[in-house]
Design a protein that fits this description.
Number of strands: 5
Radius of gyration: 17 Å
Structural class: alpha+beta
Strand content: 25-35%
Number of helices: 3
Largest sheet: 5 strands, antiparallel
Helix content: 10-25%
Distance between the termini: 11 Å
């Protein structure tokens, strides 16, 4: 999608991205793809041994979903900055819903950019990760 700076508005929403529920298969595939085989994400016995009721998703999986939200909206080279903060654990069965909103328009050294606030929440609206990105127009 080609963004036209003059056509973008503060408070404009990005197209929402809703993903399938987090499953054990999701976690196993992400562990293999990312190389993050931390047992807290894939081994039920380990998770229970450290006081959790079950395994939970990698934080970087949610960040990857936000990256997908952005790259389905703009071309990857337009993303100048991408920052997140992990807010809560994403559990098995959670349905990740990625959203974003334009919060600022900027001219940075002659380059027109927009700042977007982004987040992942589950189907109950519990926020799992929050962040922002700077997008060149």
């Amino acid at each position: 999608m080609t963004l036209h700076y003059d056509e973008l508005e503060i408070d404009q929403d990005l197209p929402e991205l809703i993903l399938p529920p987090i499953s054990r298969t999701t976690l196993a595939l992400f562990a293999g793809a990312s190389g993050d085989h931390n047992p807290i994400h894939i081994d039920l016995d380990f998770a229970r041994a450290v006081g959790m009721s079950d395994v939970f998703a990698h934080g970087m999986l949610s960040m990857a979903y936000l990256g997908r939200l952005l790259t389905q909206w703009v071309a990857q080279p337009q993303i100048k900055q991408f920052n997140v903060r992990f807010a809560d654990i994403t559990l098995l069965g959670d349905v990740p819903c990625c959203t974003g909103k334009i919060v600022e328009k900027q001219d940075i050294n002659g380059e027109k950019c927009i700042k977007v606030k982004i987040q992942v929440a589950n189907q109950q609206g519990q926020v799992k990760i929050v962040g922002d990105a700077l997008i060149a127009c």
